[in-house]
Amino acid sequence: MLTLATTVPGDPEIFASLQGEGPSIGRPSTFVRLSRCNLACQWCDTAYTWRFEGDNRPHRDEAAFERKSNQLSLEEADVAERIAALAPDRLVITGGEPLLQGAALARMASALNDLRPGMHIEIETNGTVAPHPALDPLIHQFNVSPKLAHSGNPADLALIPERLAAWAAEPRAVFKFVVAQQADLDEVHALQDHYAIPSERLFVMPEGRSSDVLRQRSAWMADFCAQSGWRFTDRLHIHLWGDTRGT
């Protein structure tokens, strides 16, 4: 079974849209949003995947979500059929933290390959969990987003040295750092130097849930990227549809 987030109660968050971030930005994609996360970013825009009633981990909205309304479980084959019924030939598995459900994802991806052979599969991960051995060979791209100090997560939970080193050595992995202030860029630079992350695989993205905030932060971030050789990524879906589920 896979544990998924919902768009509305009882409706799993499986949908076709455009990839809004990272190296695949603008590409038609099918999205599957899983529930549960091992981190708690204070600015997380999908807190409904983890901050359920009784969870006191900090979040700037201080919202708590009813688990029954925001989470459901489906058989892996059912999820694969729902994905195969949508048009895009690219799948983005997001969360929450998808790699917490690695074994079930491997079963789903295998079933999907029988229904839609050759579908490109990306996983969006916070970089703290190793891919399940059965899942790893089925994935074409890992979008790794390590959480910086401004996320509010302790470094010993969010920045695990052996995992960061493994991702840096993995050619299928691209790094996407969420940045809110200029000091965050110094932290990115230190991580790049320490783990030898190639600049062509390093993206920075403004933190923000509105177009106004994204544009404000994008201006100085873009200048920095042009000087440093890093890649910049916007949040296209926010500009198109706002901070909404199922987009």
TrEMBL record:
CDD domains: Radical_SAM
Example GO biological process: tRNA queuosine(34) biosynthetic process
Bound cofactor: record note: Binds 1 S-adenosyl-L-methionine per subunit. Binds 1 [4Fe-4S] cluster. The cluster is coordinated with 3 cysteines and an exchangeable S-adenosyl-L-methionine.
Binding positions (substrate): L18, Q19, G20, R33, T94
Annotated GO MF terms: 4 iron, 4 sulfur cluster binding; carbon-nitrogen lyase activity; magnesium ion binding; S-adenosyl-L-methionine binding
Residue numbers binding [4Fe-4S] cluster: C37, C41, C44
Cofactor requirements of the protein: S-adenosyl-L-methionine; Mg(2+); [4Fe-4S] cluster
Pathway per the UniProt entry: Purine metabolism; 7-cyano-7-deazaguanine biosynthesis
Residues bound to Mg(2+): T46
Protein EC: 4.3.99.3
Pfam families cross-referenced by the UniProt entry: Radical_SAM (PF04055)
Ligand binding (S-adenosyl-L-methionine): W43, C44, D45, G96, S145, P146, K147
Summary of the function given for this chain in its UniProt record: Catalyzes the complex heterocyclic radical-mediated conversion of 6-carboxy-5,6,7,8-tetrahydropterin (CPH4) to 7-carboxy-7-deazaguanine (CDG), a step common to the biosynthetic pathways of all 7-deazapurine-containing compounds.
HAMAP family (alphabetical): QueE (MF_00917)
Subunit relationships: Homodimer.
This protein's name: 7-carboxy-7-deazaguanine synthase
Protein source organism: Novosphingobium malaysiense
